[in-house]
Write a structure and sequence with these properties.
Two copies of one chain form a homodimer. The first copy, chain A, has one domain: TIM Barrel, CATH 3.20.20. Chain A is 40% helix and 12% strand. Chain A has helices spanning 23-36, 68-76, 95-109, 123-126, 137-155, 213-222, 233-246, 271-282, 287-297, 323-336, 340-350, 360-372, 388-403, 416-420, 428-435; strands at residues 40-43, 83-89, 113-118, 163-166, 171-173, 183-184, 189-190, 205-208, 225-228, 258-267, 354-358, 380-381. In chain A, strands 1, 2, 3, 8, 9, 10, 11 and 12 form an eight-stranded parallel β-sheet that branches. In chain A, helix 2 runs parallel beside helix 3 (95-109), helix 5 runs parallel beside helix 6 and helix 9 (287-297) crosses helix 11. Chain A starts with 22 loop residues before the first helix and ends with a helix. At the A-B interface, helix 2, helix 3, strand 5 and strand 7 of A face helix 2, helix 3, strand 5 and strand 7 of B. Chains A, B: Pfam families: Bac_luciferase. Chains A, B: Belongs to the NtaA/SnaA/DszA monooxygenase family.
């Protein structure tokens, strides 16, 4: 969210409550994160106002913000190094548009674009696109598999050295280096070629966050970065081991997929200060908002009939979309024995992500433990409110990470792939021709 | 085109042949045009590589360039005043996406966005979107009519003063000022609301360029700016009179629609210098490119069997797309008795637009004549090559226009609507409620 990841973060005294319509807010954030050496700035997205009932929505800052590709393009013009990652849905888009927009962002930014592939999760989205209901999970993932292949195929329409710019002979490009895709699949017929040169990164970095069986299979085959919500070291290790273990089947090595759990950090100069900051944020949650958010995590189930200080009912039905969130929350309820009220406060903080508070050393101890125990290749840092929550992380946590040699002093590359240690993909046809 | 409007403009010694992948090229152009006080920068667009056979395409600079919404968003971040207008097709998009992206660009730019509504014209586009053929003209315009209504309806999802940002009470926005669209039409079912605040301009400026009967009806009902290709003062006057005459039927006044013919200017310090510049450009046209371009203007008709120095065959069949270009070219052939070779050179210069060359005074005489004779409210200036062709216009023509009081000394407003003298639309529901 524009205002930070805590549901009440926009109410923090130093938060920019109007962040969703302020380019200067985002430009300052991006420059700040870039000066600190972050890999990337990531924008989640949906193509509807989602997941809140009409009574609760006005108490949150999540109803309205910039469209992410346009916003990241504007940020590309005012930054030089930081990666720019946006979500785009395979359920409510056409692959030609998605391929083209991310290729364009990659050119505008000199090789800093990333695409977070999602299949979306709400009927609200369906109803903005002439459908009554969100398509079924299996159908969405079948479409997503084909969609990603079409997009990467379109990115290879041009070979890297296709453009000659030969004014004297009037030859703009080498015709032998332009390729039609001629894709004929179950969901899409796409001839191509794409009307933009091959992206500077070859392919913009592909990111995913689905944790279902189908989501993990798609990720193992196509993704280069995974965002995931994990609550415990053991859970994160199991997820990490499981997903990395799937790669060999697709001819890939473990270093080709970076797993980045979300972390929601509240940092203080002392443990007490961190705790105070956290409780101050929690006290800003209106009870109705907490309950609505919990209901959303469970796929829209109405919890108003259950006592707040009692347990979750145990006969809940798994929803059609966002299965992994449902499992995460019901798992939390079961394992930690949390009441509905406690679950409300838990999901309100970080929407199911790992929430840690403490001194810089306490926070870095935990991040380091996850990193060294093969639970994470890095982290998706989710500041509770903005810009102050990011400033805290930069000013307090980064120096401690650097002292331990766990965070770069400065960028050594210029592209998002280089920041992440990901190899630039060769051109598919060129490689096939070479091996033939 | 990124390299200029003359088909061989990219071969000009000072042209940026790599403009289609250079943000710095576009940023410099936009800043230059802004310093000069232009209303807007306009990007035409298609969602395919279109209108050229495989043998001819490599000799042009039109196959690959930025996606326009991402490019204009980047330019929004490095300019302050100039309008930013992009084409988006109603045939190969969904209205929710289009409404959202132009709203986002309008916010990013502080009220400088414009949407050029087109229905597209090529089978090449259809084949990138799982269709075999481009839909029929009447179907495209029926969809376009509904599409524009959905987009403008979505822009009014939020009232202008909906956001309260009341941190103390936890009220982000006033729920009574958020409206669903609940559109149920023949082509689209769109519930809304849009997940971005009402654009700073109320609605981004709506531009159109179709000249067919259906195109003019759509324009008369919904457009605020018209781009048009006109070859003669009389033709331009007839078009101007006809289109302005349609407005009253839709309850609109003539000043609510600005008609801007395209003009392709080649300017010299003397008439001889202008002629030399023009001929030098014409000599850069490869004959095969000229013939392919003429064929494209006629809807893809194969002209290779006809003698170059003979007339156009007179039994040509009007194409499904781009009817107005077909009529323009066949009209030219008939009225001026041009051969195929002459037509090739004519369409190669300005793609059917008005081409004028001469001294600054000669050029301004003609622009002034059109303006004063109600043939134009202004012009869409199409430099032959870039950046030099724009520089020539700014350095040589603008001073003469200003001397005669026909061009602003500096901006007096900050939004594209203000530059164009267009009123900001009120909020539809708010206005209905007021009059009820």
């Amino acid at each position: 969210m524009a205002t930070g990841h805590h549901v009440a973060g926009w109410r923090h005294p130093d938060a920019h409550a109007d962040a969703g319509r302020s380019l200067s807010h985002y430009a300052a954030l991006a420059r700040r994160a870039e000066a600190a050496g972050f890999d990337a700035l990531f924008l989640a997205d949906g193509v509807a106002i989602r997941g809140m009932d009409d009574a609760t929505l006005p108490h949150t800052a999540r109803a309205a913000t910039f469209e992410p590709l346009t916003l990241l393009s504007a940020l590309a013009a005012v930054t030089q190094r930081i990666g720019l990652v946006a979500t785009a849905s395979t359920t409510y888009n056409e692959p030609y548009h998605v391929a083209r927009k991310f290729a364009s962002l990659d050119h505008l930014s000199g090789g800093r674009a990333g695409w977070n592939v999602v299949t979306s999760w709400s009927d609200a989205e369906a109803r903005n696109f002439s459908l009554d209901r969100h398509p079924e999970h299996a159908d969405r993932y079948a479409r997503a598999e084909e969609f990603v292949d079409v997009v990467t195929g379109l990115w290879d329409s041009w070979e890297d050295d296709a453009f000659l710019y030969d004014k004297a002979n009037g030859v703009h490009f080498d015709a032998s280096k332009l390729h039609r895709l001629d894709h004929h699949g179950r969901h899409f017929q796409v001839r191509g070629p794409l009307n933009i040169a091959r992206p500077p990164q070859g392919h913009p970095v592909i990111v995913q966050a689905g944790s279902s069986e189908a989501g993990q299979e798609l990720a193992a085959r196509t993704a280069e970065v995974i965002f995931t919500a994990q609550q415990s070291l053991e859970g994160a290790q199991a997820f990490y081991r499981g997903l990395k273990g799937r790669l060999a089947r697709f001819g890939r090595t473990p270093d080709q997929l970076k797993i980045l759990p979300g972390v929601f950090p509240v940092v203080g100069r002392s443990a007490a200060e961190a705790e105070e900051k956290f409780e101050a944020l929690q006290d800003l949650i209106l009870p109705s908002v907490g309950l609505a958010l919990l209901s959303q995590h469970l796929g829209g189930i109405d919890l108003s009939g259950y006592p707040l200080d009692g347990p979750l009912p145990d006969n809940l039905q798994e929803p059609n979309g966002a299965k992994s969130r449902f499992q995460l929350v019901t798992g939390l309820a079961r394992e930690e024995g949390l009441t509905i009220r406690q679950l409300c406060r838990r999901v309100a903080t970080a929407r199911g992500h790992w929430s840690i508070h403490g001194t810089p050393a306490q926070i870095v101890d935990q991040l380091q433990a996850w990193f060294e125990a093969e639970a994470a290749d890095g982290f998706n840092v989710m500041p509770p409110w903005l810009p102050g929550g990011l400033d805290d992380f930069i000013e307090l946590v980064l120096p401690e990470l650097r002292r331990r040699g766990l965070f770069r002093e400065q960028y050594t590359g210029t592209t998002l792939r280089e920041h992440l240690g990901l190899v630039r993909p060769g051109h598919l046809r060129r490689e096939r021709a070479r091996s033939a």
